[in-house]
Amino acid sequence: MPSIKQFQVTFDCAEPERLARFWCEVLGYVVPPPPEGFATWGDFHRSLPPEDQGSWSACIDPSGVGPRLYFQRVPEGKVVKNRLHLDVRVGTGLVGEERLAALEAECTRLVPLGAVRVQLLYDGNDSCIVMQDIEGNEFCID
User: Fold this and answer.
1) Which parts of the chain have pLDDT scores under 70?
2) Rounded to an integer, what distance in angstroms lies between the CA atom of residue 21 and that of residue 60?
3) Measured between alpha carbons, how far is 43 from 85 in angstroms, rounded to an integer?
């Protein structure tokens, strides 16, 4: 069986474009160009039936290394903790106070974007900060 070469991470959400733009800011990702024949994503979405307009969005790693993130509108809201979440790796290789400072700096950057700090997990050496995105999806600054 051949190995999988690519995958995307899909988020169920209420506002796909808004959530995609949030994650672009968090990860340094970009919104991909609109499909051929359309000058903007707005033009593309207006070409769809009204019920499908704005029903999805995506963002990609401009370097092509990270997975594509896909956001799809669903009718139900989030009601329980995620079973899967993203770890935003800003403290790799750091320990103790140096690691904690890097995580806190990233948290300070993300809160004005709409992220919510939930909990600091710190044992004096290892640490992470549990956060929520603008629709309440949990993620960690790690």
Assistant:
1) 1
2) 11
3) 32
Q: Are strands 8-13 and 127-132 parallel, antiparallel or unpaired?
A: unpaired
Q: Distance between CA atoms of 1 and 21, rounded to whole angstroms?
A: 36
* Residue appearing with tokens 């999805």: 56
Rounded to two decimals, the pTM is 0.89
Q: Is the dihedral of CA 109, 112, 114, 115 positive or negative?
A: positive
Are 91 and 99 a contacting pair, CB within 8 Å? yes
Q: Containing H/E element for 109?
A: helix 96-110
| Closest by Cα among 111, 62, 84, 90 to 12 | 84
Beta strands in the chain (DSSP E): 8-13, 56-59, 68-73, 86-88, 116-122, 127-132, 138-141
**DSSP 3-state of 94:** coil
- Dmax (CA) for the chain in angstroms is 55
Distance of CA 116 to the CA centre of its chain: 13
Separation between Cα atoms, residue 42 and residue 47, nearest integer Å: 9
Look at residue 34 in the predicted model and tell me its pLDDT.
93
